[in-house]
Amino acid sequence: MKHDIVIIGGGPAGLAAAAAAREAGARDILILEREKELGGILNQCIHNGFGLHTFHEELTGPEYAARFIAQIQELQIPYLLSTTVIDLSSPASGGVKVTAVSRENGLVEVEAKAAVLAMGCRERPRGALNIPGTRPAGVFSAGTAQRLVNLEGYLPGREVVILGSGDIGLIMARRMTLEGAKVKCVAEIQPYSGGLKRNIVQCLNDYGIPLKLSHTVVDIQGKERVEGVTIAEVDEHLKPIPGTEEQFSCDTLLLSVGLIPENELSKEIGVELSPVTSGPKVNESLETNVPGVFACGNVLHVHDLVDYVSEEAAQAGRNAALYAAGRNEDQGEEIPVETGGAVRYTVPCRICAQRVEGSQVVRFRVSKNMRNASVCVYADGREILRRKRPVMAPGEMEQVLLKQKDLLGVKQLLVCTEE
Amino acid sequence: MIQCDIVIAGAGVIGSAVARELSRFEGSIAVLEKNADVCEGTSKANSAIIHAGFDAEPGTWKAKMNVRGNEKMDKLAEELDIPFQRCGAFVVCLHEEELPKLKELYERGLANGVPGLKLLNREEALALEPNLSDAVCGALLAETSGIVCPFELTLGLAENAAMNGAQFYFETQITGLERREDGWLVKTSGEDFLTKAVVNAAGVHSDELHNLVCENKLHVASRKGEYCLLDKTAGQHVSHTIFQLPGKYGKGVLVSPTVHGNLLLGPTAADIEDREETKTTAEGLGEVLEKSALGVRNIPIRQVITSFTGLRAHEAGDDFVLGETAEGFFDAAGIESPGLSSASAIGEYLAALIAEKLQLARKENFQPIRRGVPRLHDMPAEQRKAYIEKNPAYGNIICRCEQVSEGEILDAIHGVLGAKTLDGVKRRTRAGMGRCQSGFCSPRVMELLARELSLDLREIRKNEKGSEIVLEKTRG
Fold first, then answer.
1. In chain B, which residue's Cα lies nearest the Cα of A138?
2. Which pairs count as long-range contacts for A232-239, CB under 8 Å and 24+ apart, including other chains?
3. Rounded Cα distance, B145 and B236, in Å
4. Which chain A residues contact residue B399 at CB under 8 A?
5. What sequence ranges are listed for the domain FAD dependent oxidoreductase (chain B) (predicted)?
6. For chains A and B, what is the number of CB pairs under 8 angstroms?
7. 3-state DSSP assignment of residue B259
8. Alpha carbon of B172 to those of B160, B197, B287: distances in Å?
9. Are residues A396 and A342 in the same domain?
10. Does B51 participate in catalysis according to the annotation?
11. Are B471 and A157 in contact (CB < 8 Å)?
């Protein structure tokens, strides 16, 4: 029997997609989650600040997840836990075939008319940066340390240096400090932070933790356990400047150096990925190049705020429901969304104007810090949107709302910044 | 004090191979290893190549043992259930004027008795290996060259030796060696051993052990080599191991597929003072990336998932030191490249010498077959299904990148010479070796280790003493 929709991942994206799909009429939905509980990475994010946009209150990660889990239970959407998807394929009969394994059900194959990819992302490891030095215990990605502290209840170190100012690193600077560890500094190779402004204020400034921009780790010392790291300033090509080395004794190095959408499964089924985001290239319905396969959340592009993940995922869920019901046939040509100025990418990267429901959110990031620049959208060379932004930063996702009436009949669409 | 017939110093690939070959004979074997697991020294970080044997000078131990070791590999891999692929190797020549050197190498290979050697021109080479660089003007193809997983080779040898009665003593450092009437008293950081024979397989420390008892002194220099490992998405970039022809432009570095489908680049070469210093350096890693591009084009270097440094025990005489160098003292010293390729042959050779010396009879019930941890990811769906039905823990995926299940990790922990550390689990199962480099699975593997070995999470180590991962409980 074919399900209407199978949702891969029961984190914030998968949950919101499932709920929205049900509300849009999909009856037979199945969520596959590899962890023991629904909620995804939110379960280890015990700090607050989630849900300001969605619920207009500050929730912790588990509280935010609980609201969506309650909704899933209310809507009686079935889910399988501790179930890892190991393969995705396109059967000859159409739709999607998912192969998964679990302790309870063994190896199972599930077919569905549509699939929503909601696998989230992973942290970039030390090796991806080629940080020189020894290879002792005490080098953790920030998320791993977060899990050890918040879920397992163990402190991974007492004297800490953090490389990278991604949000998880900033959150962990505060968390480790609250647990009695000494966080000596946060080094960031770029001249700007990769995290949210509010996290820099609340997690570093409030605790007197120095943020060293344009600095990186050039050496790790210690044989069995980290004994220290060397930090140096970098030039405009991000190369360490000799003579600027500074030694920090520490037993722990946390890395918060970027997140990578986890698209190994997507590739199995032939989903085309963007080299900029490492996530699928999707159209206005958040559908990938593989018909019936939709993507949302951090597997699509890395988000800062879970609220936007939920919003985006709901859109993917609704469209998957339409697809499964056979109501999402081609209604017109998809035009590419071109980028200009400091805009690095857009999601979606293709738009079919006929399928837009009233208005279309386009999300993007910029490549540098900007003050008083404008976000502009041109349709066939005609300006259809201009918005002044006092501050834009690579660490903060931007979005614009395009009206369907401005898009109909358009052959060329450009989203750009102007300074 | 423990009495035995043979003490083997070192549980690297050489010590383990000697132990396995000796375990064919009657006689008690004690393998002493100063680290917490097998394969912790030079054996763990190298090019993972089973060389064809054309490189060493004819008549040297290196040449003889390499060629014999290579011959033995197919049967050995089958017996020990370890991955081995004869993917073949290219030695590429990057400068027209050095083509005669390629011919020399070919002839040296013939003199060493290496089968399957061919000289190729650029077109022939490109037809087999399309990603060779524009500079390649000719190549030597060695069809018998292969790739292996050094951990699994060492583990296979060691576990099979243990199955056949060899005793392994970990975290046992030799502190002294005294001659006794009928053999040696081996003093260690733990119990002392009274033994008839000692085998020196102490890797970068093999000269120290040798010099304790022999007049003729050895000098082993520790030479380090840095490597970069690329993700499996890059594993198909070449299908053979690509060496560069050593010459006046330097030694070059290799580019090779691995048996697990990754791409390996390296090594550099630098002599170091501290024999066990395995730091990587910015210069070294830069050199690896730069030089690997000379022979192979468009290497996707953004796919690097980790880098590491390996050690080689280079003896001043430039050859392996093998044989009975003092009464009842057998050397396998200065084993550098092609040591991995030669290991099984060295084991065979020394075991025969020792058996003869001690008059050991062959065992009737030697069991040559060892089974490794099953690899569910590589199984066809039906077989995988059957495994999970038999043991549901095989259905519980712990390491998502390499798709390693709880069942496989439990097998590794409870197997012969079971894993006790994160690295131990990693080497036996690949949990943590994938693209996230253990970010997701390490807390879960730690939990399994703690549960199965009845340890507190604070006692779980990465590898050696002092490498504990979490330090204390949180305040909550």
1. B469
2. A234/A189, A238/A189, A238/A190
3. 17
4. none
5. 5-353
6. 146
7. coil
8. 21, 18, 37
9. yes
10. yes
11. yes
For position A189, which CATH number holds?
3.50.50.60
Judged by a CB distance cut-off of 8 A, whether residue A391 touches chain B is no
Q: Is A138 in the same domain as A180?
A: yes
The total domain count for chain A is: 3
Model confidence at A395, in pLDDT bands (50, 70, 90)? confident
Partner residue facing B400 (CB), from A34, A126, A158: A34
Min Cα separation B421/chain A (Å): 12
3-state helix, strand, coil in chain A (%, to 5): 25, 35, 40
Q: Is-above-0.90 flag for pTM? A: yes
- Answer yes or no: are the C-beta atoms of A159 and A182 closer than 8 Å: yes
Nearest-by-Cβ selection for B388 from A101, A123, A153? A101
Q: Enumerate residues 149 to 168 of chain A having a beta carbon within 8 A of any beta carbon in chain B.
A: 149, 151-158
CB B140 within 8 A of CB B54: yes
- Give DSSP secondary structure letters for B404-447: EEHHHHHHHHHSTT---SHHHHHHHH-TT-STTTTTTTHHHHHH
CB atoms near residue B121 (< 10 Å): 12
| Partners of residue B440 in chain A, C-beta under 8 Å | 122, 144
Q: Which of B279, B376, B382, B433 to mutate to test the interface with A (most CBs of A within 10 A)?
A: B279
Residue A131 and residue A236 in one domain: yes
The two structure tokens encoding residue A81: 């836990």
Does the CB of B100 have a partner CB in chain A at under 8 Å?
Answer: no
Q: Are residues A264 and A410 in the same domain?
A: no
Please check the confidence at residue A344 and state whether its pLDDT lies above 90.
yes
Long-range contacts of A202-206 (CB under 8 A, 24+ apart): A202/A174, A203/A170, A203/A171, A203/A173, A203/A174, A204/A170, A204/A173, A204/A174, A206/A174
Give the pLDDT confidence of B208-230 residue by residue, as tens digits: 999 999 999 999 999 999 999 99
Structural domain span for residue A217:
125-257
Chain A CB contacts of B405 under 8 Å are 101
Q: Could you tell me if B470 lies within 8 Å of chain A, comparing CB atoms?
A: yes
* Torsion of Cα atoms, A209 then A215 then A216 then A222, to 10°: -60
Together in a domain, A265 and A305 = yes
Q: What is the mean pLDDT of chain A?
A: 95
Residues from chain A that touch B466, judged by Cβ atoms under 8 A, are 223-225
Measured at the CA of A362, the angle between CA A361 and CA A365, to 5 degrees, comes to 135
Chain B residues in contact with A144 by the CB 8 A cut-off are 438-440, 442-443
The region of weakest confidence among A116-130, B29-43, B342-356 is: A116-130
Q: Is the pLDDT of residue B476 over 70?
A: no
Separation of alpha carbons B210 and A347, rounded Å:
66
Give A314's Cβ-side CA count (13 Å radius): 13
The CA distances from residue A244 to A129, A217, A336, A408, in Å, are 20, 11, 46, 56
Are B296 and B410 within one domain?
A: no
ipTM of this complex prediction, to 2 decimal places: 0.94
Reported as type and span, the H/E element at residue A126 is: helix A126-129
Domain end point (choices A281, A296, A329): A329
pLDDT digits (tens, 9 = 90+) for A233-244: 999 999 999 999
Q: What is the pLDDT of residues A267-286, one digit of tens each?
A: 999 999 999 999 999 999 99
Bridge partners of A225? A137
Nearest neighbour of B285 by CB, restricted to A132, A141, A152: A132
Residue B302: Cβ-neighbour burial (10 angstroms; 0-12, 13-18, 19+): exposed
Task: Judge if B118 and B233 occupy the same domain.
Answer: yes
- CA A412 to chain B, closest CA, distance in angstroms equals 33
For testing contact with chain A, the best of B287, B470, B475 (most A CBs within 10 A): B470
Domain that holds residue B135: 85-145+221-311
Q: How far apart are CA B121 and CA B131, in angstroms?
A: 15
User: Domain check: are B105 and B227 in the same one?
Assistant: yes
